[in-house]
Amino acid sequence: MFTIACIPAFNVSSQIREVIKKSLNYVDQVIVCDDGSTDATFVNAESSGAIMLKHKKNLGKGAALKTLFDKAKEINADIVITIDGDGQFLPEEIPKLLEPIKSNKFDVVIGNRFLDKEQMPSYRKAGNKILDKFTKLAADLPFEDTQSGFRAYSSDAIKKISFSTNGFGVDSEILIDAVKKELKITEQYVTVIYDTGDKTSTKNPVSHSMGVIASIIELIAINHPLKYLGIPGIILLIIGIVYSVIVLTIFNDTRYFSIPSTLLALGSLVIGLMLLLMSVVLYSITNQSKRQI
Q1: Is the pLDDT of residue 117 over 60?
Q2: Sequence-ordered list of residues with C-beta below 8 angstroms from that of 39, at least 6 positions apart, any chain
Q3: DSSP letters along 114-157, please?
Q4: What pLDDT band is residue 196 in, cutting at 50, 70 and 90?
Q5: Domain boundaries 3-222, corresponding CATH code
Q6: CA-CA 20 to 30 A from 132: which of 90, 125, 209, 243?
Q7: Residues 35, 166: contact at Cβ < 8 Å?
Q8: pLDDT band at residue 230, thresholds of 50, 70 and 90?
Q9: Tally: H helices and E strands in the chain
Protein backbone atom coordinates (compact mmCIF):
# COMPACT_ATOMS: atom_id res chain seq x y z
CA MET A 1 0.00 0.00 0.00
CA PHE A 2 1.24 3.45 -0.93
CA THR A 3 1.59 5.32 2.37
CA ILE A 4 2.53 8.96 2.89
CA ALA A 5 3.13 11.15 5.92
CA CYS A 6 1.74 14.69 5.71
CA ILE A 7 3.31 17.36 7.90
CA PRO A 8 1.83 20.85 8.31
CA ALA A 9 4.82 22.96 9.34
CA PHE A 10 5.31 26.50 10.60
CA ASN A 11 8.65 27.68 12.02
CA VAL A 12 9.87 24.24 13.12
CA SER A 13 13.30 24.35 11.46
CA SER A 14 15.14 22.77 14.41
CA GLN A 15 12.80 19.76 14.73
CA ILE A 16 11.61 19.03 11.19
CA ARG A 17 14.71 17.16 9.97
CA GLU A 18 14.47 14.39 12.54
CA VAL A 19 10.69 14.02 12.13
CA ILE A 20 11.06 13.57 8.36
CA LYS A 21 14.03 11.22 8.47
CA LYS A 22 12.40 8.96 11.06
CA SER A 23 9.03 9.02 9.26
CA LEU A 24 10.66 7.85 6.02
CA ASN A 25 11.47 4.57 7.77
CA TYR A 26 7.74 3.79 7.96
CA VAL A 27 6.12 5.48 4.95
CA ASP A 28 6.85 5.68 1.22
CA GLN A 29 6.87 9.48 1.02
CA VAL A 30 6.84 12.48 3.32
CA ILE A 31 5.06 15.62 2.14
CA VAL A 32 5.50 18.87 4.03
CA CYS A 33 3.38 21.99 3.66
CA ASP A 34 5.46 24.94 4.84
CA ASP A 35 2.74 27.31 6.00
CA GLY A 36 4.57 30.61 5.50
CA SER A 37 7.52 29.91 7.81
CA THR A 38 10.00 32.72 8.38
CA ASP A 39 12.86 30.44 9.45
CA ALA A 40 14.72 27.60 7.67
CA THR A 41 11.83 25.12 7.84
CA PHE A 42 11.50 24.83 4.03
CA VAL A 43 15.24 24.34 3.38
CA ASN A 44 15.71 21.85 6.23
CA ALA A 45 12.65 19.83 5.26
CA GLU A 46 13.57 19.70 1.58
CA SER A 47 17.14 18.61 2.33
CA SER A 48 15.80 15.81 4.53
CA GLY A 49 13.97 14.15 1.63
CA ALA A 50 10.47 15.58 1.87
CA ILE A 51 8.31 16.65 -1.06
CA MET A 52 7.64 20.33 -0.43
CA LEU A 53 4.50 22.45 -0.75
CA LYS A 54 4.54 26.08 0.34
CA HIS A 55 2.17 28.86 1.34
CA LYS A 56 3.56 32.34 0.78
CA LYS A 57 2.09 33.49 4.10
CA ASN A 58 0.89 31.80 7.26
CA LEU A 59 -2.71 30.68 6.70
CA GLY A 60 -3.15 28.25 9.58
CA LYS A 61 -3.00 24.51 10.25
CA GLY A 62 -6.35 23.87 8.55
CA ALA A 63 -5.20 25.55 5.34
CA ALA A 64 -1.98 23.50 5.40
CA LEU A 65 -3.95 20.27 5.85
CA LYS A 66 -6.23 21.19 2.92
CA THR A 67 -3.17 21.58 0.70
CA LEU A 68 -1.74 18.28 1.95
CA PHE A 69 -5.02 16.37 1.53
CA ASP A 70 -5.41 17.71 -2.02
CA LYS A 71 -1.91 16.45 -2.80
CA ALA A 72 -2.67 13.06 -1.23
CA LYS A 73 -5.75 12.71 -3.45
CA GLU A 74 -3.76 13.80 -6.49
CA ILE A 75 -1.13 11.10 -6.01
CA ASN A 76 -3.69 8.43 -4.98
CA ALA A 77 -2.24 7.64 -1.56
CA ASP A 78 -3.71 4.53 0.07
CA ILE A 79 -3.03 5.70 3.64
CA VAL A 80 -2.19 9.18 4.92
CA ILE A 81 -0.49 9.81 8.24
CA THR A 82 -0.68 13.33 9.65
CA ILE A 83 2.00 14.20 12.18
CA ASP A 84 3.11 17.52 13.62
CA GLY A 85 6.54 18.84 12.68
CA ASP A 86 7.53 19.95 16.18
CA GLY A 87 8.85 16.58 17.34
CA GLN A 88 6.26 15.92 20.04
CA PHE A 89 5.02 12.73 18.39
CA LEU A 90 7.26 9.74 17.71
CA PRO A 91 7.41 8.62 14.05
CA GLU A 92 8.38 5.20 15.41
CA GLU A 93 4.72 4.80 16.41
CA ILE A 94 3.40 5.31 12.87
CA PRO A 95 2.95 1.51 12.39
CA LYS A 96 0.59 1.54 15.38
CA LEU A 97 -1.74 3.89 13.50
CA LEU A 98 -1.31 2.15 10.13
CA GLU A 99 -2.32 -1.34 11.26
CA PRO A 100 -6.08 -0.75 11.89
CA ILE A 101 -6.40 0.68 8.36
CA LYS A 102 -4.24 -1.96 6.69
CA SER A 103 -6.46 -4.64 8.21
CA ASN A 104 -9.49 -2.88 6.60
CA LYS A 105 -11.18 -2.40 9.96
CA PHE A 106 -11.10 1.40 10.23
CA ASP A 107 -10.95 4.57 8.11
CA VAL A 108 -9.53 6.99 10.69
CA VAL A 109 -7.15 6.25 13.55
CA ILE A 110 -6.55 8.91 16.22
CA GLY A 111 -3.27 8.98 18.13
CA ASN A 112 -4.61 9.28 21.69
CA ARG A 113 -2.22 11.32 23.87
CA PHE A 114 -3.86 10.49 27.20
CA LEU A 115 -2.20 7.16 28.06
CA ASP A 116 0.04 8.90 30.61
CA LYS A 117 -2.00 11.91 31.70
CA GLU A 118 0.47 12.76 34.47
CA GLN A 119 3.08 13.76 31.89
CA MET A 120 0.79 16.32 30.22
CA PRO A 121 1.28 19.88 31.52
CA SER A 122 -1.70 20.99 33.62
CA TYR A 123 -2.61 23.90 31.34
CA ARG A 124 -2.68 21.57 28.31
CA LYS A 125 -4.73 19.00 30.19
CA ALA A 126 -7.32 21.62 31.18
CA GLY A 127 -7.36 23.16 27.70
CA ASN A 128 -7.81 19.81 25.96
CA LYS A 129 -10.65 18.84 28.29
CA ILE A 130 -12.46 22.09 27.47
CA LEU A 131 -11.91 21.66 23.73
CA ASP A 132 -13.04 18.02 23.88
CA LYS A 133 -16.26 19.06 25.68
CA PHE A 134 -17.03 21.72 23.07
CA THR A 135 -16.29 19.30 20.21
CA LYS A 136 -18.66 16.72 21.69
CA LEU A 137 -21.41 19.36 21.75
CA ALA A 138 -21.07 19.70 17.98
CA ALA A 139 -21.33 15.96 17.37
CA ASP A 140 -21.67 12.77 19.37
CA LEU A 141 -17.99 11.83 19.43
CA PRO A 142 -17.13 8.92 21.76
CA PHE A 143 -13.40 9.66 21.60
CA GLU A 144 -11.04 10.54 24.42
CA ASP A 145 -8.72 12.78 22.38
CA THR A 146 -10.41 14.91 19.70
CA GLN A 147 -7.53 17.39 19.33
CA SER A 148 -4.62 15.10 18.44
CA GLY A 149 -2.84 15.94 15.18
CA PHE A 150 -1.24 12.48 14.94
CA ARG A 151 -3.72 10.46 12.85
CA ALA A 152 -4.04 7.98 10.02
CA TYR A 153 -6.61 8.17 7.22
CA SER A 154 -7.62 5.64 4.58
CA SER A 155 -7.89 6.74 0.95
CA ASP A 156 -11.68 6.54 1.31
CA ALA A 157 -11.57 8.90 4.30
CA ILE A 158 -9.34 11.39 2.45
CA LYS A 159 -11.78 11.43 -0.48
CA LYS A 160 -14.91 11.82 1.67
CA ILE A 161 -13.83 14.22 4.42
CA SER A 162 -14.35 17.91 3.75
CA PHE A 163 -13.54 20.88 5.99
CA SER A 164 -13.35 24.65 5.76
CA THR A 165 -11.58 25.73 8.96
CA ASN A 166 -8.18 27.30 8.32
CA GLY A 167 -7.02 27.40 11.94
CA PHE A 168 -6.45 24.84 14.70
CA GLY A 169 -10.16 24.02 14.91
CA VAL A 170 -9.61 21.80 11.87
CA ASP A 171 -8.91 18.71 14.04
CA SER A 172 -12.41 18.94 15.51
CA GLU A 173 -14.08 19.68 12.18
CA ILE A 174 -12.43 16.71 10.48
CA LEU A 175 -13.69 14.30 13.16
CA ILE A 176 -17.18 15.79 13.11
CA ASP A 177 -17.33 15.42 9.33
CA ALA A 178 -15.92 11.88 9.48
CA VAL A 179 -18.67 10.87 11.91
CA LYS A 180 -21.33 12.47 9.68
CA LYS A 181 -19.93 10.52 6.71
CA GLU A 182 -20.20 7.32 8.81
CA LEU A 183 -16.50 6.53 8.57
CA LYS A 184 -15.12 3.96 11.01
CA ILE A 185 -12.92 5.61 13.63
CA THR A 186 -10.75 4.26 16.44
CA GLU A 187 -8.00 5.43 18.79
CA GLN A 188 -4.54 4.12 19.58
CA TYR A 189 -2.51 5.35 22.53
CA VAL A 190 0.67 7.18 21.51
CA THR A 191 3.61 8.73 23.30
CA VAL A 192 3.96 12.50 23.51
CA ILE A 193 7.15 14.40 24.33
CA TYR A 194 6.19 17.74 25.86
CA ASP A 195 9.72 18.89 26.54
CA THR A 196 11.56 18.64 23.21
CA GLY A 197 14.12 21.30 24.15
CA ASP A 198 12.48 23.79 21.78
CA LYS A 199 9.31 25.82 21.73
CA THR A 200 6.63 23.45 20.41
CA SER A 201 3.82 25.96 19.95
CA THR A 202 3.86 29.06 17.81
CA LYS A 203 0.73 30.40 19.48
CA ASN A 204 -0.20 31.49 23.00
CA PRO A 205 -2.19 28.65 24.69
CA VAL A 206 -5.08 30.97 25.57
CA SER A 207 -5.40 32.48 22.07
CA HIS A 208 -4.98 28.99 20.60
CA SER A 209 -7.82 27.61 22.72
CA MET A 210 -10.08 30.60 22.06
CA GLY A 211 -9.52 30.23 18.31
CA VAL A 212 -10.42 26.54 18.43
CA ILE A 213 -13.49 27.21 20.59
CA ALA A 214 -14.69 29.90 18.17
CA SER A 215 -14.40 27.43 15.28
CA ILE A 216 -16.21 24.72 17.24
CA ILE A 217 -19.04 27.10 18.26
CA GLU A 218 -19.49 27.86 14.56
CA LEU A 219 -19.71 24.12 13.86
CA ILE A 220 -22.18 23.66 16.73
CA ALA A 221 -24.42 26.37 15.29
CA ILE A 222 -24.25 24.83 11.82
CA ASN A 223 -24.81 21.22 12.90
CA HIS A 224 -27.48 21.85 15.57
CA PRO A 225 -29.06 25.24 14.76
CA LEU A 226 -32.51 24.48 16.17
CA LYS A 227 -31.12 23.19 19.46
CA TYR A 228 -28.47 25.82 20.15
CA LEU A 229 -29.98 28.84 18.38
CA GLY A 230 -33.69 28.13 17.93
CA ILE A 231 -34.51 27.13 21.51
CA PRO A 232 -32.64 30.10 23.10
CA GLY A 233 -34.35 32.32 20.52
CA ILE A 234 -37.81 31.07 21.54
CA ILE A 235 -36.96 31.54 25.25
CA LEU A 236 -35.85 35.13 24.62
CA LEU A 237 -38.98 35.83 22.60
CA ILE A 238 -41.14 34.56 25.48
CA ILE A 239 -39.18 36.73 27.94
CA GLY A 240 -39.61 39.71 25.61
CA ILE A 241 -43.36 39.14 25.32
CA VAL A 242 -43.76 38.74 29.11
CA TYR A 243 -41.87 41.96 29.83
CA SER A 244 -43.80 43.79 27.10
CA VAL A 245 -47.06 42.79 28.81
CA ILE A 246 -45.65 43.90 32.18
CA VAL A 247 -44.59 47.29 30.75
CA LEU A 248 -47.98 47.88 29.13
CA THR A 249 -49.85 46.76 32.26
CA ILE A 250 -47.84 49.07 34.53
CA PHE A 251 -48.29 51.98 32.11
CA ASN A 252 -52.02 51.34 31.82
CA ASP A 253 -52.49 51.21 35.60
CA THR A 254 -50.10 53.96 36.75
CA ARG A 255 -49.09 55.90 33.63
CA TYR A 256 -45.50 55.11 34.66
CA PHE A 257 -43.24 54.14 31.76
CA SER A 258 -40.42 51.80 32.90
CA ILE A 259 -37.42 52.38 30.64
CA PRO A 260 -35.31 49.41 32.01
CA SER A 261 -38.20 46.97 31.53
CA THR A 262 -38.89 48.37 28.06
CA LEU A 263 -35.25 47.99 27.03
CA LEU A 264 -35.21 44.42 28.38
CA ALA A 265 -38.40 43.61 26.48
CA LEU A 266 -37.18 45.09 23.21
CA GLY A 267 -33.71 43.55 23.54
CA SER A 268 -35.14 40.09 24.24
CA LEU A 269 -37.58 40.35 21.35
CA VAL A 270 -34.97 41.52 18.84
CA ILE A 271 -32.24 39.05 19.85
CA GLY A 272 -34.73 36.19 20.16
CA LEU A 273 -36.17 36.88 16.72
CA MET A 274 -32.67 37.08 15.20
CA LEU A 275 -31.62 33.76 16.77
CA LEU A 276 -34.82 32.08 15.65
CA LEU A 277 -34.45 33.32 12.07
CA MET A 278 -30.76 32.31 12.01
CA SER A 279 -31.62 28.81 13.25
CA VAL A 280 -34.24 28.35 10.53
CA VAL A 281 -31.88 29.61 7.80
CA LEU A 282 -28.98 27.42 9.00
CA TYR A 283 -31.28 24.40 9.34
CA SER A 284 -32.50 24.89 5.77
CA ILE A 285 -28.96 25.29 4.42
CA THR A 286 -27.70 22.22 6.33
CA ASN A 287 -30.59 20.06 5.09
CA GLN A 288 -30.08 21.26 1.53
CA SER A 289 -26.37 20.40 1.74
CA LYS A 290 -27.18 16.91 3.07
CA ARG A 291 -29.54 16.26 0.16
CA GLN A 292 -26.85 17.26 -2.33
CA ILE A 293 -24.23 14.87 -0.87
Answers
A1: no
A2: 11, 13
A3: -TTGGGS-HHHHHHHHHHHHHHHHHS----S-SS---EEEEHHH
A4: low
A5: 3.90.550.10
A6: 90
A7: no
A8: confident
A9: 11, 7
